[in-house]
Amino acid sequence: MADDQRRTDGTRPAADRPRTVLLVGAGVMAEGYLHAAQALGLRVGVVETPTRRAVLADRFPCLVDFEPVDEAAAARDESWLAPATTLAARLRPDAVLGFAEPHVLATAMVQHRLGLPGPGLDAATVSRNKALQRAEFGRTGLPQPAHRHTRRLSEATDWALERLPVVVKPVSSQGSQGVERVGTPADWADAVARRDTEGPLLVERYVEGQEYSVEALVHRGRVLFTNLTRKETTGPPHFVELLHEAGYGTDRPVLRKAAEELCRGVVAALGMVTGVAHLEFRAVADGEPVIMEVAVRTPGDHIMELVGRAHRFDVFGALLLLALGEEPAVPDGHHPVRSAGSLFLSSPGSGTLAALDLSGWADRPDVARYDARLAPGARVRPAEDSGDRLAWAVLDCATPDALRALAAELVNGAVVDLTDDPGAHLEAV
Q1: What is the pLDDT of residues 250-306, one digit of tens each?
Q2: Global pTM?
């Protein structure tokens, strides 16, 4: 067992017992960790809501313990620390791993207290606050948009009007929640009227350019592996992500090199130690990336599954080994085997969802999995944040061209029936 797995009391777990992982948060996209844990012979304790735990209990024999989180408070960072600490005291885990945004700080605190591998308290804290990110990236000279952190939106009026278009975003959120492009003085006045009392906000100069992300595995401050993902969004004003294409950039060496260098700079700026980094950026040109934000947790939208499919390795298993203090064997990231993507369907209009027909997505060999996100009866609208999206599919194709063609076919083949809307029967676009 690696030295950085030694507990703070100097002891090590007995060599003859299975190692134990404490998983803070176990949503749908965390199930890859549970499958990998079973394959590695690990025991797992989870901190989750009772409803979610009930879904997992019979499917994953590796689950050996559980500590509940209040359903109503599960979206708040502070809800996870007490149960994570309680379960850690009971299990004395060999590794602690957090899943989504609300789990990052609690996980980092437990890792720190137990002397176990993780991104580190500095990296975790900065990743949960976009204003802190801007300060740290500014301090280290990394490329990012001009910006202002403001208590009230109206206080940034003079600065913003001189730099339109700008983007307004909360300092701590995910899934495009509260992200809005403001293009004209009239739009700014409207945003101020709606959001002036919302609380601290970040106002950034809008950067025109294609959106990408880098997914990196980091061991003791060293980047072991990177994947480049291309994104398609709804565009302004909300930029909700509708397609992720992993394993991108084999024919764009300048872009790929710039993305890797930017990622290493971000990891260094955060003082990140071990784990996964998810860096989002826009590229003004292939050699000119500009940071949007970074997270030190599993990216959403099935991206980690896409990374594994594109590069043909168990990325969840690799992250478990990192959490255990080991250095996993990983591909170089430069030669993806497949083009993997996640597709999301946005409503063509506002109204009540009467029916969603995804039968055209069935029995397609390159569609690995798919499902609806919203059920008939839900009020829907063209996506303004990730929660508005109607359905998703994971695609596994031979080439990027095949992936994009399939994504277009699936969108055109889905039928969305809306009521309370002038054209009730509309094809999704």
Answers
A1: 999 999 999 999 999 999 999 999 999 999 999 999 999 999 999 999 999 999 999
A2: 0.90
Question: What does the pLDDT read at residue 179?
Answer: 86
Residue 124 lies in a domain: no
Report the domain count for the chain: 4
Give the CATH number of the domain where residue 428 resides. Answer: 3.30.470.20
Assign 3-class secondary structure to the chain: CCHHHCCCCCCCCCCCCCCEEEEECCCHHHHHHHHHHHHHCCEEEEEECHHHHHHHHCCCCCEEEEEECCHHHCCCHHHCHHHHHHHHHHHCCCEEEECCHHHHHHHHHHHHHHCCCCCCHHHHHHHCCHHHHHHHHHHCCCCCCCEEEECCHHHHHHHHHCCCCEEEEECCCCCCCCCEEECCHHHHHHHHHHHCCCCCEEEEECCCCEEEEEEEEEECCEEEEEEEEEEEECCCCCCCEEEEEECCCCCCHHHHHHHHHHHHHHHHHHCCCCEEEEEEEEECCCCCEEEEEEECCCCCCCHHHHHHHHHCCCHHHHHHHHHCCCCCCCCCCCCCCCEEEEEEECCCCCEEEEEEECHHHCCCCCEEEEEECCCCCCEECCCCCHHHCCEEEEEEECCHHHHHHHHHHHHHHCEEEEECCCCCEEECC
What pLDDT is stored for residue 199 in this prediction? 84
- All residue ranges of the chain with pLDDT < 50 are 1-12, 422-429
Express each pLDDT in 19-38 by its tens digit: 999 999 999 999 999 999 99
- Domain end (from 61, 96, 116): 116
For residue 126, tell me if it sits in a domain: no
